[in-house]
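Design request, tokens follow.
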């Protein structure tokens, strides 16, 4: 099960260097006769390109006049040129020469492959689907994972994203008859939401537990101490089970996705994937409801990971996903708790030593981390489970205190949704769509 959607960037940016180079070419073209112009237009030279995203492709009359100093620019009017579905706002001249100019610019854009060179980014498609894969080769249990991945438009292979967003889902809620809950229980829909919030250059992985006891998710591979209901007795970094499991699971998912994509191609592409402008993707973690227990385990493993394992990744070696527990832990930049809660203690990290070790690690050179706690009255104001709100407050206090010691490398914020509404199950799921992750 999978689908591919074509996505082009919404806006095009390039700087004055390219425009000046283009006008140099125009000056040379202007001196030619029509026959020579047509002949020259069939062979496109490679202008030098310097990228600067701060300059827009929208030009007004003054911009054009200032860039073309050698000749007087005739009366201009604003027009747009559509290239492969992308609207380029251009100036136009009411004479035959402008036709050659537009033709020339169009061919230059197409020559560089859908504007790739002008943006410094590869134009990407997306592949989305549900994967059912084992944690490790030969494992009996299979995980259900919704994936939405960046793929190259030329090779059709997965390509390096700007970040990997990994979302751990919670318990199953079925038979409510509520269309909102049904929609936001769908793993593929959650993946779409994550991509819509983070942008088209992200890979989204939405993971469901491999075992359920009735409706209760049991993340036993990630947290060995969980009981039959999936509730952790403790969080312990020994053996690094969560980070090791994630690396193995993502590897299985990527392999399966590649197989599905290649099998659906009429014939394998021999074209190499264009180089991505991203080198080492960041990792963003999301834990929804009971999925927050996996985040707690990962935070514990991060706190106790070896400081000497922090290395600067090679820019020449590009990885679509983390390939070791060290690269995973060192790439984590954001951790989002999404309305987490349990019927027991352990919904949030409340151990001062663990948070202190995170702070120490950051002060000694680790990548900065942002913690965001998203909540609703369904969890934070539950009078029958008052410990959930208290644990949240304790974690925020500990993180805030440590952030004073390591400055901007550690930040924490809490965001409360539907504050003026009575607690209900629907808001618990609606927060997935409503959460602000900016």
């Amino acid at each position: 099960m999978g689908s591919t959607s074509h996505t082009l960037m919404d806006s095009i940016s390039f700087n004055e260097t390219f425009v000046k180079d283009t006008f140099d070419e125009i000056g040379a073209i202007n001196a030619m006769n029509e026959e020579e112009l047509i002949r020259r237009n069939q062979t496109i030279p490679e202008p030098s390109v310097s990228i600067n995203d701060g300059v827009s492709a929208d030009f007004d009359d003054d911009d054009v006049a200032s860039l073309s100093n050698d000749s007087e620019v005739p009366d201009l009017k604003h027009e747009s040129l559509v290239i492969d579905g992308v609207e380029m706002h251009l100036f136009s001249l009411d004479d035959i020469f402008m036709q050659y100019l537009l033709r020339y610019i169009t061919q230059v854009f197409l020559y560089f492959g859908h504007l790739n060179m002008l943006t410094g980014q590869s134009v990407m498609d997306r592949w989305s689907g549900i994967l059912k894969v084992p944690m490790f080769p030969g494992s009996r249990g299979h995980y259900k994972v919704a994936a939405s991945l960046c793929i190259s438009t030329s090779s059709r292979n997965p390509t390096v994203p700007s970040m990997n967003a990994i979302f751990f889902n919670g318990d199953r809620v079925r038979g409510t008859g509520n269309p909102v809950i049904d929609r936001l229980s769908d793993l593929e829909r959650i993946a779409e939401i994550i991509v819509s919030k983070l942008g088209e250059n992200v890979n989204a992985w939405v993971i469901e537990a491999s075992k359920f006891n009735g409706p209760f998710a049991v993340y036993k591979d990630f947290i060995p101490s969980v009981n039959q209901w999936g509730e952790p007795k403790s969080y312990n970094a020994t053996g690094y089970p969560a980070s090791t499991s994630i690396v193995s699971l993502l590897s299985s998912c990527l392999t399966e996705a590649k197989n599905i994509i290649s099998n659906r191609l009429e014939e394998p592409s021999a074209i190499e994937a264009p180089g991505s402008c991203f080198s080492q993707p960041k990792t963003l973690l999301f834990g929804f409801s009971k999925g927050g227990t996996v985040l707690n385990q990962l935070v514990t493993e991060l706190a106790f990971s070896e400081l000497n394992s922090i290395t600067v990744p090679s820019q020449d070696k590009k990885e679509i996903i983390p390939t070791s527990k060290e690269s995973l832990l060192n790439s984590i930049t954001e951790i989002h708790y999404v309305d987490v809660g349990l019927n027991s203690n352990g919904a949030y990290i409340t151990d001062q030593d663990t948070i202190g070790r995170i702070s120490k690690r950051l002060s000694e050179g680790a990548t900065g981390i942002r913690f965001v706690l998203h909540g609703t009255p369904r969890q934070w104001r539950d009078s029958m489970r008052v410990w959930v709100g208290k644990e949240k407050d304790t974690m925020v206090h500990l993180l805030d205190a440590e952030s004073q010691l390591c400055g901007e490398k550690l930040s924490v914020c809490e965001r409360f949704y539907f504050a003026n509404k009575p607690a209900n199950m629907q808001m618990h799921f609606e927060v997935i769509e409503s959460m602000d992750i900016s």
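Comment from the thread starter after seeing the answer: thanks! Residues 16-119 form one domain.
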